[in-house]
Amino acid sequence: MRPYRGRFFAGLVALFIGASFGLVFPLLAGALIDAAINGGRTSLPLLGSLTINQIALTLAVTISIQAAGSFNSALSFSHVGQSALADLRSATYGRLLALPMTFFGQRRVGELASRVSTDIAQIEGALIDSLPQACRQVVFLGGGLALIATTSLPLTAVMLGTLPLLIGAAVFFGRRLRRFSRETQDRLADSQTIVEETLQAIASVKSFANERFELERYSTANHATLAVALQAARWRAVFVAFFIAALFGGILIVLWYGALQLQAGALTGGELTRFVLYTTFVGGAMAQSAELFSQVQKTVGATQRVREILRESVEDNSAPANDPNATQPERLRGEVTFDRVSFCYPARPDAPVLHDVELVARPGERIALVGPSGAGKSTLTALLLRFYDPDAGALLIDGRDARSYPLHWLRNQMALVPQDVLLFGGSIRENIAYGRPGADDQAIEAAARQANAHDFIMSFPEGYATLVGDRGIKLSGGQRQRIAIARALLKNPAILILDEATSSLDSESERLVQDALDRLMEGRTTFVVAHRLATIRDVDHIAVIDGGRVVETGTHDELSARPDGLYRRLSSLQFGPR
After folding, report:
1. pTM for the structure as a whole
2. Span 422-492: which CATH code?
3. Parallel, antiparallel, or unpaired for β 541-546 and 549-554?
4. In what order do the strands lie in the sheet containing 495-499?
5. Residue 292 CA: distances (Å) to CA of 298, 373, 456, 509
6. 42: part of which helix (H) or strand (E)?
7. Of 146, 185, 411, 578, which has the fewest Cβ atoms less than 10 A away?
8. pLDDT for 303-333, tens place per residue?
9. Buried b (16+ CB within 10 A) or exposed e, 290-310
């Protein structure tokens, strides 16, 4: 809220003015009673002797000023709260985008989405509703107590005697409410994760007829959330009930003592009226404070979850300050060297994935990575994109350690065409332009033509404005692949990564996609991850990966000629014995 402190303090001033004039109401109401008893006139501090009509008119002016102050304070607090929340949402989402892949490898998407939506919605209630209410109650409480003290010090002492008990209860219950609030938000995130996972895989859910299973899974998580929420509600209800009982028990004693004072002539009817109204203000403020305190404890739990994200370390996009090669070339040449690289994923530190991998790709070469599933092929491409850094050895690009390049600049020199293309839910034009945001229509169409995508795009009534649906569901697999290739062509990378880019396609789609890939690979260093060996016969080199090691390298013909080689065995399984 710091950027909006000027508007915030203006709201505080307006709130203070409105609440202060609200505190004048009991004083004038008591004066009306005294004026009625004393023949139609009474004296007030600063205002002198006033008639009943003059007091009523002053009351009307007071109410108008109070209403104006309340309007301006509500408007200012809403502006500050909504603006701060918009900044918080952007900061949280921006921090999520900047976090390294190690973070996402240990979190579920639904949990993170819950922090951006549910937790911030919880904070919204505190900023826009609870904070102004708390400020208003502080004015009513402090001002009311001060004005009560000017009426009768003995009565004020009786009322203040309940405060230590109330403060102790707030501390005791607050700790438990905060813990339950955090646990409720965690359980809510678990249930939201199930919803997101189910909807993302809705085709699998329906094909396996597992709707009932998913409903039961969600219901279990939902009931776990409910159990924690009800437990928190019980503690909150006990706290509020105790608070109100102690508070109004104190007010009852005050009123009883005040009635005795009136009977003895120590107080006038107007003074007792004023005291009762101020006592109501103070009691209402303290009762409201109990509920506000409970709300704040819930917000603290949500705030802790958001702050955890904001405290996470982000990817470093700057080159090392002491790097003698800090000046970046305009474009990479595309030479890639894996120099005795070893690696294991942070979530599985006891399970090494790569062992002393040595692999060299010269500028413009096409390198195929083949081997059994789980051999480490995709891990090599993840290291190349610097989703992770090697645990041992070095990844060199154009003779320099990859870590010496600014991260975003380095990734802008690369493009990935994955096996399972996930398009964004916008138009075809927007999805192609994702390779180079801001590209004009002419460049987008040129890339689509090179990717053999223009003809099928123009077959749609909306052409390039056609919406592809969630994750590109309205397009076929071959069409999605060609959109991804067009996106990569528009980016014009120096290094290209193809991860099973032609798998699971029919013959006609595969021909069109392969033709587009051939254009895409021209003049670029390309790493092709492949299980279908027929797609890699024309590459410059093949690296056979097994158990995290490079066990063979060579061309298709060279590797096929080795009688006991792994590549020959894989080739025999796909093409039959030679």
Report:
1. 0.69
2. 3.40.50.300
3. antiparallel
4. 414-417, 495-499, 525-529, 366-370, 541-546, 549-554
5. 10, 56, 59, 62
6. strand 41-44
7. 578
8. 877 888 888 888 876 655 455 555 677 889 9
9. bbbbbbbbbbbbbbebbeebe
